[in-house]
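RETRY 2/3 - previous attempt timed out on the joint model. Re-submitting the same 225-residue input unchanged.
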Amino acid sequence: DSGVTQTPKHLITATGQRVTLRCSPRSGDLSVYWYQQSLDQGLQFLIQYYNGEERAKGNILERFSAQQFPDLHSELNLSSLELGDSALYFCASSLGSVATGELFFGEGSRLTVL
Amino acid sequence: EDQVTQSPEALRLQEGESSSLNCSYTVSGLRGLFWYRQDPGKGPEFLFTLYSAGEEKEKERLKATLTKKESFLHITAPKPEDSATYLCAVQGQDSNYQLIWGAGTKLIIKP
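RETRY 2/3 succeeded.
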């Protein structure tokens, strides 16, 4: 158990809809990272938050947004969903603001867009 | 552009049959290379960090090595519980500390 909690584990929705994925980081960790994993592309970094502030941005679409709340949990919002957004979405956490490479991953949220 | 290529895509071994997984990378100034293990339906789990050529790290039946262009994950006398996808990631000096991931090698150990 990594200590990182993600909900929901599975989500099925339709094109055009909006969903919110939630992540609670490991106790004491201040950084939260969001990744997308699809069969053909591997792990793609989306965005990182550190102590409530956006720290780094990867290949995150404009239809996607995220935030980290004062209690350090984070939410990833996906809107105007397309079939291609179907993937596993992982949240990871680390203690510091800089990714040292040792990230603790949750079990992921599997999104299926029909 | 920073890039990571892992080979082979999949590897089937008999229990006890040792082998190696490869991670080739192109990066502008390596800060670190990382190995993770991912079980089906789970998130990746951190294994090793390597920082400079010649460095080696070991954990149970796994040994990771690093050169200036690639890293190897050697698996000695594997057991069925070693079956997983092994992911390699690099952190370059120009990547704003973010990790660039390879697509992984799916390892299957048959009893």
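The interface with chain A takes residues 32, 34, 41-46, 49, 87, 89, 91, 96-99, 101-104 of chain B (CB under 8 Å). Closing ticket.
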